[in-house]
Amino acid sequence: MATTTRDSDLGRPGAGPDAPTFVETALALGGKSALEARSTGTIDRADDQVEAMFAERHQTANSPVHLAVWGSSVPVDLFRPVAAEVPGACARVMNDSLEVVRQRKAEGTLLDAHGKVSPETLGELAGVGYWGLLVDVEYGGTGAPFSAFAAFLTRMATIDPTVAGLASVHGCIGAVDPLRAFGTAEQKRRYLPKLASGEKLSAFALTEPGAGSDLTALKTTAVLDGDEYVVNGEKLFITNAVPGRTVGLVCRIEGAPAVLIADLPDHEDEHFQLVRYGLYALKHTHNNGLRFRDFRVPAENLLRPSRGDGLTVAYHGLNLGRVALCASAAGAMRGMLAGMLPWADFRKTYGAPIGTRELVRRRVGRLAGLIVGCDALVAWCAGLLDQGYRGEMECVVAKIFGSEAQKEAAIELSMKTHGGRAFLHGHPFGDNVHEYLAPCIYEGEGEMLGMSFFKSLIKGHGKSYFEPVGRAIAAAGLRKPDMKNPVHLWALRSPLRAYAGWYAREKFASMAPRTPDLSGVPEPLASHARFAAEGLRRCRFEISAAMRTHQLNLADRQCRMAELSRRTQDLVVMLTTALYAPGRGDLVVRAADVLCRDLKRGLTGARPSDRDFRAATSLGEAVEAGGFAAIAGVDPGAILMTY
Ligand SMILES: Cc1cc2nc3c(=O)[nH]c(=O)nc-3n(C[C@H](O)[C@H](O)[C@H](O)COP(=O)(O)OP(=O)(O)OC[C@H]3O[C@@H](n4cnc5c(N)ncnc54)[C@H](O)[C@@H]3O)c2cc1C
Fold it and tell me: Separation of 178 CA from ligand 1 center, angstroms?
């Protein structure tokens, strides 16, 4: 549950790793400090290095979202989810793990005396193979495809979101993914079997007191001394960090970010201490600060990515973590729905159950829509990652949508429906409200991530058409370019001509847009998909216009970037949801329709029609009437709260 948002990725002109990036140039011309320009340029370069790890067809420029916005047509097939294969061995581990947690919950033995998931529970889960799901078979795991793992996390989170979250911390952002993706054969042999068996559980230590959103401010250092690194510094907010854990520790080695696989000692000593604080969120697991004073880590534990540095390692795991977060949100929201239904049936006001009222039915319908939206994003993103895509923009959409949906579901839908009882001790809302909100912050705060999404989206366009303008401005020594000044226009004529050519070609092509192939998609989902596809195609003009208007100051126009990012993300959610639902049953199709209607109105500013209201309330009524299993895919009896 780590951080990282890339602050500026507008492109990199010039050759060589130390050449200034477009954003460095832009910030410098815009009068920003040399430190800010250099820092953001460093992150820009780390991103380029992650990109280079992927085959060209799987890089950002060829990702579904990028192609939909900038390509010649919207690649609808790349937005369809791929069915998750669940090998037999994985299915066994998954079912056994669910059974362990179900049983311990029922017996009241899931948590220890401090309210944390108990060591015995962690041990029993180890016994059935839970911690090895993402570890390859040759190292003692079951090698689950990520799409199967993500779908399973939703089932686990429906029963217990904390246990689901721990699997993500261990397997996605903790030590497992960094070792799988960047470890040498020797490092994998040494660590992965222990991580698969659960003998060692892991965490990821990136955030520091002075470095959360701004990763260029990392201060923890590791200095080579003989065959060991000597680590000094402090980490903050590290989930699952207790003595004895194996931690992916991000620190600076000779100035550059690096990741060391560090075994925390079994006891605190003068070199390693926990920094304890009260934390409302993740209350059923451990989250601590870590203080290192001349703490020694074997030099052989340094991960050496063939390209890039420690941030490369961090970005890789975070992609998986963000999809896992959306999958957990889908599970947590099923739990909320399961709690709302019996209450809405039981609670009578003015002589009738509140569940018969339109306002409550609309909430139930909206919640079903949010769940299906999360399911769609999880299936789509996890499938892309399994196919080898970098998928960074897509995973960011899943993270933001999942965390915002969970927040809305908790406060607007669940809390309001439960009324005053929501605040009683023992009520799922009151007891878990911080759990529901925290995903908006960890693994990157939503708006910061939204800007990062936007910057990834415009990077190629900026490189092709705006970076040459920036270079020409710098070469001509123009401090404030003025497009009405003929001297300035003349200095910029060549890059401006290239841009005008692009614009004219695109405008011409947009007069006869290609109709996406939506065979197999019934109405009204097909019309939602068409709307989203057309909207995504049109984004190129809005985005390019913002780049034209704000030019080198765009990096500072955060509100505009956030707004454009939001719109693009909503279109992506709409298209993905409309393509996911067909064939999954009537209620899923109706839930997808309700979510798409809501998203569409948000984009067009239209008021809800009576048909919109009816779609939501009649869906709510159908869910209340026993359609819950179809939405949730779980046995309601197992999770209903008793009243
Ligand atoms: C429950 C929980 C679990 C966590 N688990 C882990 C973990 O396991 N490992 C780990 O490494 N970290 C973990 N974190 C840390 C988490 O990832 C960070 O809290 C998060 O990335 C934000 O960093 P910060 O708190 O330092 O916010 P800050 O960097 O202090 O930023 C605060 C806010 O300021 C705004 N802001 C910041 N910079 C800008 C900017 N340039 N422009 C505009 N607005 C800006 C944003 O809205 C941001 O949210 C966890 C946090 C929590 C709460």
Answer: 21
